[in-house]
Amino acid sequence: xxxxxxxxxxxxxxxxxxxxxxxxxxxxxxxxxxxxxxxxxxxxxxxxxxxxxxxxxxxxxxxxxxxxxxxxxxxxxxxxxxxxxxxxxxxxxxxxxxxxxxxxxxxxxxxxxxxxxxxxxxxxxxx
Length: 127
Hints:
By secondary structure, this protein is of the alpha/beta class.
């Protein structure tokens, strides 16, 4: 059972050895990620030069629980648009927050703007 939700930025901090990655490493065994954010991670790995043929495998090596992005999460992410518009949150950001809200779990991210929001989701900045 998951204990935390990871944003794509948190997963990438771990994969790329960035500051805060050690905090993600410490919770990997109990972490989950929204399928939307998992797609973001794979796409960013390609952007950073990981060959297309191995980007998916690199993400799978983390053995994260990937939670489907369903209709309820999509609705919640869409509704978060009104509250988060001024903070520049993407659909992926809102998908992550919607999952954290549904599962009632803290969300780990590098995005400082999230800490300014009061959405009923605990936001943990990893750096």
